[in-house]
Amino acid sequence: MSGLKAFESIRGTISGESTLSGTLSVATGQDYDIYSGEYEIIPDVEDEQTLETAHKLLTDNIVVAKVPYFETSNDSNGNTAYIGKEV
Question: Which residue among 25, 47, 53, 83 is least crowded, i.e. fewest CB within 10 A of its CB?
Answer without folding.
Answer: 47
